[in-house]
UniProtKB/TrEMBL annotation, chain A:
Domain ABC transporter per the UniProt entry, residue ranges: 3-248
Annotated keywords: ATP-binding, Cell membrane, Membrane, Nucleotide-binding, Transport
Compartments reported by the entry: Cell membrane
Name this polypeptide is given: ABC transporter ATP-binding protein
InterPro entries (alphabetical): AAA+_ATPase, ABC_Ni/Peptide_Import, ABC_transporter-like_ATP-bd, ABC_transporter-like_CS, P-loop_NTPase
Lineage, uppermost ranks: Bacteria, Bacillati, Actinomycetota, Actinomycetes, Kitasatosporales
Automatic annotation (TrEMBL), chain B:
Keyword Membrane: yes
Gene Ontology cellular-component terms listed: plasma membrane
UniProt keywords, alphabetically: Cell membrane, Membrane, Transmembrane, Transmembrane helix, Transport
InterPro entries assigned: BPD_transp_1_N, MetI-like, MetI-like_sf
Glycoprotein keyword on record: no
Membrane association type: Multi-pass membrane protein
Protein family according to the UniProt entry: Belongs to the binding-protein-dependent transport system permease family.
Residue spans crossing the bilayer: 41-62, 135-156, 168-190, 232-251, 291-316, 336-362
PANTHER family noted in UniProt: DIPEPTIDE TRANSPORT SYSTEM PERMEASE PROTEIN DPPB-RELATED
Organism in which the protein naturally occurs: Streptomyces mesophilus
Span of domain ABC transmembrane type-1: 129-359
CDD domains: TM_PBP2
Listed name of the protein: ABC transporter permease
Compartmental location: Cell membrane
Amino acid sequence: MTLTITGLRVAIRDTQILSGIELALHKGQVHGLAGESGSGKTMTGFAVLGLLPHGARASGRIELAGRDLLGLPDKELNRVRGNDIAMVFQDPSTSLHPMLTVGRQLTEHMRPHLGLGKAEARERALELLTKVRIPNPAEAYRRYPHQFSGGMRQRIAVAVALACDPQVLIADEPTTALDVTVQAGILRLLRGLCDELGLAVLLITHDLGVMSAIADEVSVLRDGLVVESGARKSVLRTPTHPYTRSLLEDLP
Amino acid sequence: MTSTQNRVRRRNGPLPTFHVRGPILGFLARRPLLRFLARRILVAILLAWGITLVTFVLTNLVPGDPVAANLGQRAVGDPVAVAQWRAEHGLDKSLPQQYLLFLEGLLHGDLGTSQQSHRPVSEDLAEFVPATLELAGAAILVSLVLGVAFGLIAALRRDRLADHVLRMLSLIGVSVPTFWLALLAFYVFFYRLQLTPGSGRVDPAIGAPPPVTGLHTVDAALAGRWDIFTSALGHLIVPALVLSLYTIGLLTRFTRSAVLEVLGQDYVRAGRAKGLSGRVILFRYVLRSALVPIITVAGLAFGSLLSGTVLVEAIFAWQGVGQYAYKSATALDLPAIMGVGLVVSGVYLAINLLVDVLYGVIDPRVRLR
Ligand SMILES: Nc1ncnc2c1ncn2[C@@H]1O[C@H](COP(=O)(O)OP(=O)(O)O)[C@@H](O)[C@H]1O
Ligand SMILES: [Mg+2]
């Protein structure tokens, strides 16, 4: 078991947003987190990395290798962020810094996390770009995000997330902002990386179709609570919760 | 030059794409930043030429007879003296000819002779421009440092005490009229508290430093004359602060809102998700993006700061371009007015060029297609 979330509750001011989330991520497996917009999927991801908005209070337990992340002071949490747990965001046109080169964004966290020098970091960055299938990595390294297409940008964002060899990858709707034509490519890439690197992936999506394509396990979130969880086949074929059934019926 | 480049090229083999464009264009094509700079500078040169034209035309449209303004009562009645004076100043030629003469002189640094001081205008300007540059430069420096720092602090301490205090101060800064502030500061610091020396640029008993740049503080430091430096700085501080208060207020407000806007961006959260330190996030991620709107406002604010110098110079008896411009204008001293006009528009042009270039340096989306 790589990452375990138990009884996670989050409130922002007087609004309860998550009310006792239970989730377990495993090495080499993609865990799909489904649920309609506003159900708390993104906040679950943010809670794991300590990125909740100002004024949010979180309780419960988020355990990684025997440590509770919720109790960690900021300095130690910074050693987990990007290093043990990394995140890919929804829209790569806003989640990459527009004024920093791809190379800079790939390497800047390698120094604090891995202690790599400039040349080593560059070499590793080029390998990562190859791994996510960016053509001509040496050229891409010098370029800026706006010089790439949306799909390529998301591949770069995945490479940035993988830069420090994390155990856990949280992908928050990684295909929602992309052209339909490139969505499958990104999903296949994530699946491949999960198998190859033994990542534990939390794949957040509101699209059960995406889920059924690559997830091993599926959890369904509703109003800040996991209403159904289990192996993909059983959840999608024989859902027990009426909410899951209604979600499945909405599929084309 | 070209032959060396060809030699280099032969040694390194041909550069197929760039070869046909010739050495300069090929060189620029491989360096987007330089190409961007070259284009901006070219535009600036065109604008500078436009400014000479506009200055010339405007000055010649001014109602009022320079002859009457510059020749004595008796001479105006004497047609021979008037004709001679007009010929001397090129006023008997056609306007286009006068413009060409003016341009030709300009290229040699000749702006004509001031009808007031009876010195070359260029000499007058060389004396007064550095004084204003010192005053305005100090004000700009102070406003940039304090305005950006205050705005940053206010944004990072949003809705806390520091934020409220700084927002209040910036509101005062942008609301208080400069002339009133100048009078108040003069009264309080000089007359009442006697904390600072009153008027002028330096204590006359000590004297000005040997001129190098014309900026008294810099020249004094260069000469190692710290007594002069202290006196010059003492004279500079209050007028510079008075002049900068408005820009400090403006920059504080805009920096605050720019930083808050950037703090809410996805890429800042992504940077935190990578485990970057707070310092890296603040300077590399936040401030860099926020600089674009800050620079825009700063460029505009410095324009208004320059017009403020006329008042502040008058109140603090600062012998600068503002005072010179005022005297020349009231005396209809055409060469002097043209000279001042050119210098002031040149400064505006330089500020705009700097703002444009900074955009390109900071934001790759501006310099790369
Ligand atoms: N900064 C915030 N302040 C208050 N409420 C918020 C904030 N961000 C999100 N929420 C609320 O939290 C709930 C869950 O949001 P989110 O996790 O983004 O949903 P989704 O499942 O679509 O990702 C929503 O009801 C949303 O309105
Ligand atoms: Mg979401």
